[in-house]
Every structure is written in C-alpha cells, then in structure tokens.
Amino acid sequence: MTEGLPMAVPAPGLPARVRIHEVGARDGLQNEKTVVPTALKAEFVHRLADAGLTTIEATSFVHPKWVPQLADAEELFPQLADLDGVALPVLVPNERGLDRALALGARRIAVFGSATESFARANLNRTVDESLAMFAPVVARAREEKVHVRGYLSMCFGDPWEGPVPVRQVVRVAKALMDLGCDELSLGDTIGVATPGHVQALLAQLDEEGVPTDAIGVHFHDTYGQALSNTLAALQLGVTTVDASAGGLGGCPYAKSATGNLATEDLVWMLDGLGVETGVDLGRLTATSVWLAERLGRPSPSRTVRALSHKE
Amino acid sequence: MTEGLPMAVPAPGLPARVRIHEVGARDGLQNEKTVVPTALKAEFVHRLADAGLTTIEATSFVHPKWVPQLADAEELFPQLADLDGVALPVLVPNERGLDRALALGARRIAVFGSATESFARANLNRTVDESLAMFAPVVARAREEKVHVRGYLSMCFGDPWEGPVPVRQVVRVAKALMDLGCDELSLGDTIGVATPGHVQALLAQLDEEGVPTDAIGVHFHDTYGQALSNTLAALQLGVTTVDASAGGLGGCPYAKSATGNLATEDLVWMLDGLGVETGVDLGRLTATSVWLAERLGRPSPSRTVRALSHKE
C-alpha cells in the first residue's frame, strides 16, 4: 500500500465511529466444503481480535446435522476465553442451542429470522410467525440471563422466490423481533440485490415506526457489487453497526469467484478514507485474510485484499 | 435475474438521468495482450449501442507503437459510421492524432492529462505544464472544427509514486484544461484509492472555483472495491456523467481477477435500483459482456455480470 493512502477526507453527516460486526468465522466458515480444523478457527478468531476487531461472531449452536462445519462449537468456544474485551456472539436457533451456549458462558447470542415467508419456509421450515414464536422463549430466557440478543432478519430487500420485498413487510417483522426483546437487529440483504435508495427507505420507515437506528446493523452482500454503496447510504442515515466478513469469506452459492458477504477489508478501506474510526488495522487484517486463504486453498474475493497482497 | 429486481426506490437529491460514458472498447481493449480483430471490436461497439449506450469511446489515435492493440483505428472507425445518434469520442494524444481523427470525421475527441508530475512524466514524458502546452493547439483546432473535447485528468486522488494527491493540485490542472477550451473533464481515480469524502471534497472545490459540475464526469476504478460508493457520492453532488467499462474490461495490471474500471453492469444495477434513467438495458448489456468474455477467453470481473450469467 502506498504510504498515506487512502487519504482521510471526512464526508458530512457520517458517524465518527463504526462498530464492525465481524461474521467471517461463523457466516463465512459455515459454507466451507472441507472441514476446517478447530485449532485453525481459534487462531483465525485470535488474529481477527489482534487486528482490532471487537465484535467477532464466533460460531453457531445449531444442530450439527444442519451445519456440520460448525459442529465443533463446544470445542471451539472455550478456546476463545482469553479474548478479554472482545464480544463473541454465537448463533442459536432454538432453546436447545441456547442451553448449549449458556452452558459455555456465552454472553451474546443471535437468532436468525426471515422477512419473507418463502425463506422462513426454506430455512426454518416454519412460517414467519411460527419462527417468531420459536424465538420468543429463547429471547426471553437470554434476557433473564442478561445475555445480549441480536436478531438477524434475512431477505430484507429481495427474495429469490418472491422478488422485491415490500418495506412494510420487513418493518413488521423487525418490530416483532424488537418486541420480543432483541437488543439489536441485523438487516440482511441475503441475495445482494439492494440499492442505496431502498436501504434508506427501509431505515427511514423503521425510524418512523420507533425502531431506533442505534439498534440497527446492516448486513450487505456483494453479489451485484452493491454492498459498499449500500453501506454508505446506511451510514448517511446514522447507522453505526456494519456486518462484514474478513476477506469476503462465505456466501458463494454458485461460483467460486462470485462473492457473498461484504469484505471487511473493502469496508475498512472506505471507512479509513472517510476518517471514520473502527479500531481495525487494515494491514494486519489483510495479512490474516491472506493467511486464511492460503489454508483454505483459494484466493480471497476481497478487492482490497487482492490489491494489497499483490502489491506487497 | 428475479423479475422486478432491483426494486426501484429513488434516493433524495440524485439526478433523474445519468449519461454513461462507455470506455470498454478503448480503455478496456487497449490493455488486451492478444490482438482483438477489428471486426470483433466493431461488433462489440454495435452491441453496446444496441444495449442503449449513447456515448461509446471507440478507439485511440495514439501512435501504434505505444498502443498496438488500437493500431487499427483508421480501419475501425469507418465501420461505426452507421451508428446514428451515438457519440463516438476518440482519444487523440497530439496534433498528428487529431489530424487522423478529423480526416475520418470524428466529432468528439479526448485528450489525456495527468494531475501529478510523476504520472505526466511516466505516461507523457513531460511535465504537467508541458503536457498542457502540447494539448493547447489540439483543443484550439478541435474547437475551430466544432469538435467536442473531453479532457481526461488522471491520478486525481492518489498516485503510485506520490501517494495522496492534494485537491488544490487537481483543481489547478482541471481549471487549466477548461481554460484551454475543453467542453468536459473526466476525473480519474487511476489507481482506485479514492473514497467518498475525498470525491465530494474535490467536486465541491471545483464548483467553488468555477468549474461547472455539469462539465464533470467521474472515472472510478474498482481496485479496492470503492468505485460504486464513490459514484454514489459524486451523484449526490450533482454529477451526471459517469465513465464505466462493459464487463469491467481493462485495467488489470497485476492480477487476472482484480479489476480496474468500474463495470457498467454494476453501475446500471445501482442506477436502475435508484430509479435513475440511463437508457441501458441491463440484460442486453450483460449478454454482450458475456459474449465478449467468451471471445477474450476469460470471465468478466463484473459482479453483476457473474451473478446474472450464472443464474440465467
């Protein structure tokens, strides 16, 4: 990287600081076809923390039958116990998953909902309302235990079966998740079709209906190259939590080189350039993604990782 | 593509219409290693026009020694004569190039300047002021002939030798190009390092110093994944001319899969989603990029092209 680049030039109306919710270790690795050793996952999370990430989604307590790649959650989670000051949320699908997470001392959990009936059916084998009913006791018990709860909301902009998703439909489920007691939401553009006006329309409507912007994270996919401009649009409306995946890990359903998750490095490049503080060291993070890509046997789809690692 | 996606949701403060200055046939193909047949280039330009593009940079009248890939300019340009209503600018480096372009009836030319001394030296073997002196008679004569002149300005945000490029330095050269008589400028982020605040700071300063925003085009590279968010930032300040390259052709100096130019398809996806009119049919454009990629023997780096062509 040429010294002094990107040049930091703030833009008006953006937050001073953004919290990056790093999903590579969970959302990224869960899609790997070959088994990733537990020790490698633990080292990955430690390296992410060393690069300055403070919220690192660690694993999932879903039934091993559904996500075999994360079947080692019980083994992995205790290996992260030394990471003081780093929030390590874990995904829990139901009460059984919550039991497992609480038994290991997890202090942050996430449930995974859908804004559309089609995806709720495909992913959870339930209607949207049935899935909310399934989450209710999970969220209630987590709150009793003073555990922080994130509610993921998938398919907030488009759905592969249903096409465009109306804003009012997303707002209804978002409010329902908040009413259950979620501390924060993550609005997912699961198939990557969102554009900035749609993002701002959803955020404005949520604000109008009483879902506070500081309880909202955005989770964009780069399938059509839109993730970073959507992120900018969200920051312009006051969002300060952004999900991203180191190296762009994960979410490549149809082509090796196509991407799913927004790469954390591409995000940090933009935020560094905007003078928005993240606490992340881009050089160390890139080195971590290069290191992991070598172990996974294929290059990172992150443009920033590719550019920086080819120049070094 | 799922029907109805992207869903069109306008964002406040954006232009109703954007003119895409398509650079794939010139800026894209000039970097090809193997010779692209003239007939293939002519078909490519015709297909771009069929997809709705109305400004298609066709070729370059630079000396064949420097850009052998475009040595067939005299042969190619007359094959585009049937494209009524399509602007076909051509690059001319000097008076000799202008003579050649005028002899073939070109009505739009472009000169290629640099905001930095290092790149002026590397690319033009001149200082910035010497290059402006070289352009002066070219622009003057073009204006006498009522030929439209675009002034490219490279390295407006960062330079591989000099690092960050101060805004005042870019503004000085931009004003000098306008004073020579250029009708429009194209602000180039040649190494892809710009971020949205930097883009807006440059545009604001140009406006303050009397360079009208409607005379400005933006030319972003996607090296670090920033091109589309920078474009959004430019649109928010009133820019209505955006350079892009079909399929993301061109500008891959160090890795096959890394990209240079913003892909026109990724841009059109965003603009379609924002309800900003371009006149471009995304499906036909994508089909053209897939068709060309097959002939060039490697996949398009455009995320939208990859996503749409894998789903079809």
Automatic annotation (TrEMBL), chains A, B:
Keywords: Lyase, Metal-binding. One of its GO terms (molecular function) is hydroxymethylglutaryl-CoA lyase activity. Gene3D superfamilies: Aldolase class I. NCBIfam families: PRK05692.1 (NF004283). InterPro entries: Aldolase_TIM, HMGL, PYR_CT. The lineage of its organism: Bacteria, Bacillati, Actinomycetota, Actinomycetes, Kitasatosporales. Residues 18-286 form the Pyruvate carboxyltransferase domain. GO terms for biological process: ketone body biosynthetic process; L-leucine catabolic process. It comes from the Bacteria. Signal peptide: none annotated. PROSITE patterns: PYR_CT. It comes from Streptomyces liangshanensis. Belongs to the HMG-CoA lyase family. This is Hydroxymethylglutaryl-CoA lyase. Pfam families: HMGL-like (PF00682).
